[in-house]
Amino acid sequence: MSNIIECQDLSYSYNDGKLETSVLKALNLSISPGESIAILGQSGCGKSTLLNLLGGMSQPSAGKVLLNNVDLAQLDEEHTTLLRAEHLGFVYQFHHLLKDFSALDNVAMPLLIRDNDKQSANKQASELLSNIGLQNKLNHRPSELSGGERQRVAIARALITNPSCLLADEPTGNLDAKNAADVLALMVELNQAQNSALVMVTHDQMIAQKMQRVLVLEDGRLNES
Questions:
Q1: Is residue 14 classed as helix, strand or coil in its secondary structure?
Q2: Domain residue extents for the chain
Q3: Contacts of 172-179 spanning 24+ positions with Cβ under 8 A
Q4: Where is the ABC transporter domain (predicted)?
Q5: Parallel, antiparallel, or unpaired for β 213-218 and 197-201?
Q6: What's the burial of 4, exposed, middle or buried (CB within 10 Å: 0-12/13-18/19+)?
Q7: Rounded CA separation 192/111 (Å)
């Protein structure tokens, strides 16, 4: 089975004045359907940079990122956006929900952007929110939801299009222990149910141990934990 994402000798560096700083160094990574991966590393080591490269939101200094066997560097911005929307979902430490829209509207939005009809989009969004225990919060705006509820809405929004891979950057970082555990369990459950890959950047060893693979980013390279 083909990899969803593959990095080949991926490198990334940036210039700060006359000084060039190398963040990632000839890194290789393959992500298969249905697998879950945790990426650990100290703050500032490049974990979020790597996630942005995997999602096509940054360009590598050298090497390749293949998404569904397509080299992202060979696409223009429009086609990169379309490919990303088709295959990837994103969850961040901050939920980034639209504050003036209900939970239902936020989750349905990716389908509406794809030109799905509103009735069908709302039906799918309602079913997904109900499946994760938010059936009584469909019409609540983000300000009316708890931190854990907002993050669950963000996860539902990321998964509504059935992406091949979910990229998550410290998704439990702003939550208390109970909500963090609930959100993590939800992500793992949906990862398995949809057979979508899950790549999670985290600093938490306890969270990492729930993933099938644990990789440590150190000195610009990934190593199996």
A1: strand
A2: 5-224
A3: 172/202, 172/204, 172/207, 173/93, 173/202, 174/93, 174/94, 174/147, 175/147, 175/148, 175/151, 176/147, 176/148, 178/148, 179/146, 179/147, 179/148, 179/151
A4: 5-225
A5: unpaired
A6: buried
A7: 22
- Domain topology for 5-224: Rossmann fold (3.40.50)
| Sign of the CA dihedral with 133 first, then 135, 138, and 139 last | negative
Collapse the DSSP code of 4 into the 3-class scheme (helix H, G, I; strand E, B; otherwise coil) and give the result: coil
Q: Which pair of structure tokens corresponds to residue 191? A: 């990862």
Q: Which long-range contacts (C-beta less than 8 Å, at least 24 apart) are formed by 184-187?
A: 184/210, 186/132, 186/152, 186/155, 187/91, 187/155
Q: Across-strand partners of 52? A: none
Dist CA 31 CA 74 (whole Å): 20
Residue type at position 192? Q
d(CA 142, CA 153): 9
Calpha distance 143→98 (Å, rounded): 10
Supply 137's token pair. 């919060």
Per-residue model confidence as pLDDT tens for the chain (225 residues): 588 899 999 999 888 777 878 889 999 999 998 899 999 988 878 888 999 999 988 889 999 999 988 898 888 888 888 888 888 888 887 778 888 999 999 999 988 888 888 999 999 999 889 888 888 999 999 999 988 888 889 988 988 888 889 999 888 777 777 777 877 887 788 777 878 899 999 888 888 888 999 999 988 888 887
Amino acid at 107: V
